UniProtKB/TrEMBL annotation:
Organism, scientific name: Podospora appendiculata
Family affiliation: Belongs to the phosphohexose mutase family.
Gene3D superfamilies per UniProt: Alpha-D-Glucose-1,6-Bisphosphate, subunit A, domain 3, Alpha-D-phosphohexomutase, C-terminal domain
Cofactor note: Binds 1 Mg(2+) ion per subunit.
Protein name: Phosphoacetylglucosamine mutase
Length: 545
């Protein structure tokens, strides 16, 4: 059968469900994400686009991940991963949106061919797509649709079945670098565990981890994968006592339910189940294991959370010190990348105390990742716990090739080289970030309380505001100021002036039909008052047409 006929026939098995009120499917920050029963046709069409992208990029493997991360169990999502394990290039988000929204199967074939012509894609060269999914039962139907698209588009594929999101990103990069000098690791799930476990042992090098770490896995894919990973740590080299909780993947309805990193961050409390043990060092993954939040419940003072800003400043401080001990301070540009949601106290601590450069980007990890790549060592985290540390090829070479003049310098260089392998270079990875935190705490001989003492967060509040038309709100200065509607920013500025150490901004959400208002100030009551004022400004401007 001819290429077009095969696509047409396969597409008929996976029709697209038209959305209510003529709305369009949109490739957003997290790919296509919505109720799973709307996604079968979308997954099919994403398969076609991934095949085109592979051919456009000279047959490099493209990844597709089926997950809805921290969303409820009824949702699912489809997103594309680029050859080095990065998020899909922005220009192609538009193409994905165009291809997915074709109303009929015939339109789909027509737009597909239009893309082939416009992008000058050679359909005769091989294409390769690899994919995985989280534990959601709906993932089965979606990968079937995806595989049907790949068969119809004469594309080689590998189904890695159940994976965490960062594992799929690892596999994409490993596949595309296999057999080259920049090989990222063995092309298998086992290869991922082996690489990280060996780096963990090297990074610990004789240091001791204090007490038990409890890990809440949001009843998602992180649970089984963490259990699996732990088998790769040689007990005689590192004693790591981990208690895995909320790891039930047999009851899909409990996924992300009252647990996980998103619950902890947004509710600012520990999951009620299992009952929090006072003082226990605890962390939470989200449903696809790419976000990480640490916390403990103090017998005296109650719940205390260490979020993405804290992980970022901890990593920047530790790596900054190692770079100095390694004698590389003058050669390495270290930068920290945050969004406007980062607590102002963390920004101050990093820029004034650690004396490191801080850059603010718009929300969404693809923006942070991109800016972090501009440094030799780029630390980036969103406050919600998604992030990683990127090392440039020059930095990795320097860690390996610098000849140490003292045992202390050798130790620093070895630890840096180990961190280069331990920390996922493709995307934020809860498992790898958690090991990084454990390594740092062990090196510093710190408890969570010691970590928390580095600075004091400014009290803050984040509010979701429903407005008639969120698109009325446009931002500038990395989303920290509104350029439209005219007059709104001046009113926010007036409100901010009334409070001490205050900062506030408003922006349209990229993932929900709402605006978000963030406010921080010297005291809790001032932060709340400021947030209320700014919410009123947004409500007023959001309703006026
Ligand atoms: C304040 C906030 O947490 N915003 C989240 C949220 O984006 P919004 O554009 O604010 O809806 O979802 C994004 C994707 O998961 C995540 O990157 C981001 O941090
Ligand atoms: Mg996630």
């Amino acid at each position: 059968m001819a290429h077009n006929d095969k696509i047409l026939a396969a597409s008929q098995k996976h029709p697209l469900v038209p959305l209510e009120r003529g709305q369009l499917y949109k490739y957003g920050t997290a790919g296509f994400r919505m109720r799973a029963d709307l996604l079968e046709g979308v997954a099919f069409r994403v398969g076609l686009l991934a095949a085109l992208r592979s051919r456009k990029l000279n047959s490099q493997a493209i990844g597709v991940m089926i997950t809805a991360s921290h969303n409820p169990a009824v949702d699912n999502g489809v997103k594309i991963v680029d050859p080095m394990g990065e998020m899909l290039e922005q220009d192609w988000e538009r193409l994905a949106t165009a291809l997915v929204n074709c109303p009929t199967h015939e339109d789909l074939v027509e737009v597909y061919n239009k893309l082939v012509a416009e992008l000058k894609i050679d359909l005769t060269i091989p294409a390769k797509v690899i994919y995985g999914r989280d534990t959601r039962p709906s993932g089965h139907t979606l990968v079937t649709a995806l595989a049907d698209a790949l068969v119809a588009a004469d594309t080689e594929y590998v189904d890695y079945k159940i994976l965490t999101t960062p594992q799929l990103h690892y596999l994409v990069r490993a596949t595309n670098t296999e057999g080259t000098p920049s090989s990222y690791g063995k092309v298998s799930e086992v290869g991922y565990y082996e690489k990280i476990a060996s780096a963990f042992v090297r990074a610990m090098k004789g240091r001791k981890i204090d007490g038990t770490l409890t890990v809440d896995c949001a009843n998602g894919v992180g649970g089984p994968k963490l259990h699996e990973f732990l088998k790769y740590i040689p007990k005689d080299k590192v004693a790591f006592d981990v208690k895995v909780v909320n790891d039930d993947v047999l009851r899909p309805e409990v996924l992300n339910l009252d647990c996980g990193a998103d619950f902890v961050k947004t509710k600012q409390r520990a999951p009620p189940i299992p009952k929090p043990q006072p003082g226990a060092r605890t962390c939470s993954f989200d449903g696809d294991a790419d976000r990480l939040i640490y916390y403990w419940v103090d017998p005296q003072t109650g719940f205390f959370m260490l979020d993405g800003d804290r992980i970022s400043s901890l990593a920047a401080s530790f790596i900054g010190d190692l770079i100095e001990s390694a004698g590389l301070k003058d050669d390495m540009r270290i930068g920290v990348v945050q969004t406007a949601y980062a607590n102002g106290a963390s920004t101050n601590y990093i820029s004034q105390h650690l004396k490191l450069k801080v850059i603010c980007t718009p929300t969404g990890v693809k923006h942070l990742h991109h800016v972090a790549q501009g440094f030799d060592i780029g630390v980036y985290f969103e406050a919600n716990g998604h992030g990683t540390v990127l090392f440039s090829p020059d930095a990795l070479n320097a860690f390996r090739d610098t000849k140490p003049q003292s045992p202390a310098q050798k130790d620093a260089l070895d630890t840096l080289a180990a961190l280069g392998d331990l920390i996922n270079q493709t995307v934020g990875d809860a498992l790898s970030d958690m090991l990084m935190v454990e390594v740092i705490l062990a090196h510093k001989n710190w408890t969570l309380r010691d970590w928390a003492m580095t600075y004091t967060d400014l009290p803050n509040r984040l509010v979701r505001v429903e407005v008639a038309d969120k698109d009325l709100f446009e931002t500038t200065d990395a989303e920290r100021r509104l350029s439209k509607p005219s007059g709104a920013q001046e009113e926010i500025d007036e409100a901010v002036k009334k409070y001490k150490d205050a900062r506030s901004f408003a922006r349209a959400s990229g993932t929900e039909n709402a605006c978000r208002v963030y406010a921080e100030a010297a005291t809790r009551s001032e932060a709340n008052e400021l947030a209320d004022r700014v919410v009123r400004v947004i409500e007023r401007y959001g309703s006026s047409q």
